[in-house]
Design a protein that fits this description.
One of its GO terms (cellular component) is membrane. The protein is an alpha/beta fold. The chain has eleven helices and nine strands. The chain has a single domain, classed as TIM Barrel (Alpha-Beta Barrel), CATH 3.20.20. Strand 4, helix 7 and strand 5 form a beta-alpha-beta unit.
Length: 247
């Protein structure tokens, strides 16, 4: 297939610039060190023995993310955030805060396009540039990737593998972007909750952030330990290596 000018192809110069910046960057160790310490504490949760659930949030960081982080902190709950590179460029401080508070961070590509519609080179650029922007902002190089809209196939997974990324999907999605109602979102999360589940939400949806205090309270009442995706995977004996799709 001949080359065509795609939406990502026009950013080739940006890709090169960010790659060089990432290579030359002297990384800040504070957020990564804090996250490592918190992850070590979370690792004591054995999801093979207790009832665990992973809450995941896509499309951030956004204006509502700090409120969500405060809610999670008060509940002593950990979550996993899949960040969009363009939004990290706009809100790097929030990306650093997310990592520093011990949550897991993954790559949700640079500009949130449907990857199956792109050429191989464009898919690779979307994944790698998203990863590099997160690393530049936070000092942490993510190894987890989530395809926008869940649009993936063997080709996308192969390219993620080549970038050294595991692919993280979900066991249930709230469709909170469509519901946009805190009570409906709460009911949906509680319906989807199950042991070793991975639930998809969005920290860019205000109603989701509004619903979280009640959701966390009810999930804990039901005996769930709210953990990151890596902790959940370890409990199931799953290694999140490059090219692995989970769950």
């Amino acid at each position: 297939m001949g080359a065509r000018a795609g939406p990502v192809g026009s950013r080739l110069a940006v890709v090169v610039t960010h790659a060089l910046l990432a290579a030359a960057l002297t990384l800040s160790s504070a957020p990564a060190a804090t996250a490592a310490a918190t992850s070590a504490a979370e690792a004591r949760v054995d999801c093979a023995r207790v009832k665990c659930l992973a809450l995941t949030f896509d499309d951030g960081p956004g204006a509502q993310t700090p409120t969500l982080l405060k809610t999670l902190r008060k509940a002593n709950a950990k979550a996993t955030f899949f960040l969009v590179g363009k939004r990290v460029e706009e809100l790097p401080k929030i990306a650093r805060q997310t990592l520093a508070e011990g949550h897991a961070v993954g790559d949700h590509t640079y500009s949130h396009q449907s990857l199956r519609a792109l050429l191989d080179e464009e898919i690779s650029q979307e994944i790698r540039l998203g990863r590099d922007v997160i690393q530049q902002a936070t000092g942490y190089r993510p190894t987890m990737f989530r395809p926008p809209y869940g649009h993936t196939d063997d080709r996308v997974l192969r390219i993620a593998d080549e970038a050294g990324m595991s692919q993280i999907m979900w066991t249930g999605t709230t469709l909170d972007w469509s519901l946009r109602d805190a009570r409906k979102i709460t009911a949906t999360v509680l319906k989807l909750a199950r042991r070793d589940g991975v639930i998809l939400m969005h920290d860019t949806v205000p109603a989701t952030v509004k619903a979280m205090p009640g959701i966390l309270k009810e999930l804990k009442k039901q005996g769930y330990h709210l953990v990151t995706v890596p902790t959940l995977a370890r409990g199931g004996g799953k290694a999140l290596g490059a090219g692995v799709s989970y769950p």
